[in-house]
Design goal:
CATH topology: Jelly Rolls
Radius of gyration: 16 Å
Number of domains: 1
CATH superfamily: Jelly Rolls
Shape: globular
CATH class: Mainly Beta
CATH architecture: Sandwich
Strand order of the largest sheet: 1-2-10-7-12-5
Number of helices: 1
Structural class: mainly beta
């Protein structure tokens, strides 16, 4: 199977089978049958998002509370990102822990982030295009966030602080301990 389990329950790395030759390559970035055959993944995606960013951009850490929580399937179409998640699910063995992985256009890995995680990424290449599928629509009224620089989480975004580019919204998210969410494992 193309899925790699992490130490975080339900957080999976998807490595598609890539067919390459002298013309280039081909792979299925998403196939509902492949995901369903894993036995662990039964998702109906309803929204696709794409973002282009320059080196140093840090986006996150974002989530949507229930009943609008989102599962996301994230990949880099161009460039390289450090994808970062924090488990917000009270009662989870990985509650409050951070997981990160480098997703690149070259490695074609994808991260399947279940509902109940805060998500963000930093751009490690000159530019990056990020694409992700969601199983719930965006809902501004349920959105929340966790401070990207919370010392308790100690996230290494692989970007020097003086080169980080953040939105105003991402500069004011609360620390993990003060974050308001309704996730239970």
């Amino acid at each position: 199977m193309p899925f790699i389990k992490t130490d975080f329950p339900d957080l999976l790395i998807f490595e598609p089978v890539v067919f390459g030759d002298d013309r280039g390559y081909f792979f299925e970035s998403y196939n509902q049958n492949t995901f369903s055959a894993s036995g662990d993944v039964h998702i109906k995606f309803v929204q696709d998002n794409q973002a282009r960013s320059v080196y140093g951009v840090v986006r996150g850490l974002h989530f949507q509370n229930n009943p609008c929580a989102q599962t996301k399937l994230i990949r880099a179409l161009q460039g390289s990102i450090l994808d970062v998640v924090v488990d917000l699910r009270k009662g989870s063995p990985s509650y409050g822990n951070v997981f990160s992985i480098e997703l690149t256009a070259e490695n074609k890995k994808q991260l399947l982030v279940p509902q109940g995680f805060a998500h963000g990424y930093s751009v490690l290449s000159e530019t990056a295009e990020v694409f992700y599928k969601c199983d719930a629509f965006y809902n501004k009224d349920t959105e929340g966030g966790v401070a990207y620089n919370d010392p308790a989480l100690n996230i290494d975004w692989k970007i020097p602080v003086e080169k980080m580019i953040l939105s105003g919204k991402d500069l004011v998210h609360p620390a993990f301990k003060d974050c308001r969410h309704n996730f239970v494992f």
